[in-house]
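Q&A log
Question type: sequence-to-structure
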Amino acid sequence: MARDGARIGLIGRRQECQVLDDLLARARAGRSGVMVVRGEAGIGKTELLNHLLDRATGCRVVRAAGVQSEMELSYAGLHQLCAPLLSHLDDLPEPQRNALRTAFGMQVGAAPDRFLVGLATLSLLAGAVGDEPLLCLVDDAQWLDRVSAQTLEFVARRLLAESVLLVLAVRESGSREILADLPELVVRGLNEHESRRLLDSVVTGPLDQRVRDRIVAETRGNPLALLELPRGLTAVDMAGGLAGPEARPLSSQIEAGFLRRIQSLPVEAQQLLLIAATEPVGDVALLRQAAERLGISVDTAVTHAEASGLMTLGTWVRFRHPLVRSAAYRAVGFEERRRVHRALADSIDARLYPERRVWHLASATMGPDEAVAAELEGSAGRAQARGGIAAAAAFLHRATELTPDPVRRGARALAAAQAKYQAGAFDAARELVDAAELSHLDEVEAGQATLLRGQITSAAKSAGAGLPLLLEAAKRLQPFDSDLAGQTYRDAIYAALTAGRLATGGVRDVAEAVLSAPGHVDTASREGLLLTGLARVITEDYSVGAPILMKAVAAFRTEELSQEDGLGWLPLVCRMAHSTWDFAAWSELSARLVDLARGNGALAVLPSALLLRLSNRVFAGDLRGADSLAVEANAIGEATGSSFFAHYGALVVEPFKGRESTTRQAIEAVTHDRLLRGEGKVTTATQWAEAVLYNGLGRYEEAYACAERGCENPQELGLSLQSRVELVEAAVRLGRTARAAEAVRTIEEMAQVSGTAWALGISAATRALVSEGQAADGLHREAIEQLDTAEARMDSARARLRYGEWLRLEQRRAEARSRLSEAHEMLSEAGAEAFAERARRELQAAGVKVRKPATATPVVLTAKEVEIARLAQGGFTNPEIGARLFLSPHTVEWHLRKVFAKLGISSRKEIDSTQLEGMAATP
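Response status: OK
Response body:
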């Protein structure tokens, strides 16, 4: 785009330049910034990046550009951006350093989680700042490989106080899936006056006014079109010729203009442009090697290409515009492109860049070729080991197309489908499963195909929708691969428990399938015991299956557990520990699962692990610990673009605090979450949450109605069983003793089977509510003793509250005051505000004056600041805090400075945990 005189500025872009200048000023002042520059091809996005580059004196600059033909090479774009910063790799925490080195192919290792790679990238950029801001410019971001785009989006959402400015230019083409919901600067066409000025700056001869008007109208203010389209006009046209209007899209017209300029060059210069267009990296040495293989006089071709203004060769090959690249590639037929791909494949060092070489080789291959297909398969394995699932899927897809043997073709299509599914490309994965099933699959492969269909359906629709396919897959795999069948039954039954009452077929069908499978009872296998016990609870009775479940839970608790088994099985084991009332096992195993997921960067499992642990902490009476876990889960949700984790955490915690508005917000959010449609567990969880809320607030009619709905489907276990406990309390308060007694009998039966202190304490507590006189007194005491033993402090505090309420009604005021004081202290300490208020009112009725807590406590710290302060007070370093909350150490330090200022302290040693516990917090 032309500039005003001596670099005064871009024509018509003063406002856009000012926005970018302000961001650069903020970066120089220590704050980070992100901007996505959007607009059509030729609108001036690259020129705006160049404007920033002109202003970047005193800044460190790193650049990258997406290339369409490189979209299948995992982490290619990210590597291009980070390459100049890799000297800082050794400064990163070891898990982050290893993740990034593996992603970039610098070392061999297990596939890193992409969010761990994102955190490593964030740390790398922040660590590279030093005394000068870091400016990161990414052009043509719409052509970045998928995992690079996802990583940069992750980083963009976490930048705050690192003195990093990240600006990405994206060609607008309808859908905004790339870098969505980030701050953006939409670049629009120039106005008529600006368009005429720009046109006048490049037209050197006389131009008829009518032709000028037509050019301005048809280019719609597109600067590149205004600069390039006049090049295609003849002298007759410029003088007022009769050329008709162009019907093609403007980008096509611009590309056609570039094509005409390419075709006007000598043949060897055209071939050089084709080679440069075909090889996305811009490696000048590789360009020369490939050109020499094709017999091109390189220096002469370079001279002509550079003289045309379409391409420059410096350290890297640079095109005048991305449309030059596409025009050069489309200017020739398939055979000529095939020759160039072959020359590039022969010129690339297979030891250094095996994936890039084989991709060119595959593009040069016309028909089935097993040798090339095998190389592609090997490259897929290497890409997957680096975490490049999308790239692995592309390699396997192409390998499938080139495989001559139908047996191998089916296996490779299935592998490609698996990779596409893992990459989130569900439609493509389904098509590849279809293709695989048209080939010859053996029995195991056929079972795996069905399993994959079930997983795709579960992910794309709901757990309930995929359930029948998962069940069918498990049955097909059972005779051939019992381990895989067991894992599939596990996933099916977990999905069925989640889908609950809304599932087609449902959990009973899965349970019956488990029990009918050959050799399902394996007393030497804790996994087999777990599945069998759960299946018998569902198909027969709690008394039949629970003892088997408890034996399985004990085995998982005491025996060695591999990383894979822990991450795969512990989520279900924790749910079964809860359902068999084994509080100690639930506490221990949920903590172990969180540690395992954190330690291995297993971010696919960590959110669920945090929510399982969060639920346990709520029943342990540690609502602040639960809040801490919710902040961490929410940090992952923010990083991954999901709000579910924050809402579900609030759904479990807020009812005990008695906060109706925030509980209702969480219920609404979870109920209407697109990803949770069709999952019956959501209905149970929301009804249980409301029952707890209204019991705390003393609104027993509402609590009763919600609890009834919450325990409608006991096969879901977990919160369905807990809903029965809430039902008893509400029913007794309403005088519905028959319904209360019925629920109590069920709870007592479960407690006799379980025999744990938690189960016996809950049983005694509910039986006390439907008893009288000395029997009630003894049961209340037994409940408190058992629940104290179980360390289920929330239930123990509520048991004291109910006992104190009963004692007051029995006119035993002194004893009532003692128990109610204990309850008030425990519930206040836990943060269970509504239940604590119930205890305060009862104490007041018993003659004890208890000051009502102030309701106007000012909000001092945000939830994130409270959590950072807690971790800092607990001895965590800034990098360790950042790793847990997906923040850079610089941002952690920035938050801590705000905490210090608000609390009037100067170091982390002065942070008072007691002060934090009483701190009101905003989200």
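Response note: Confidence is low (pLDDT under 50) at residues 1-8, 235-248.
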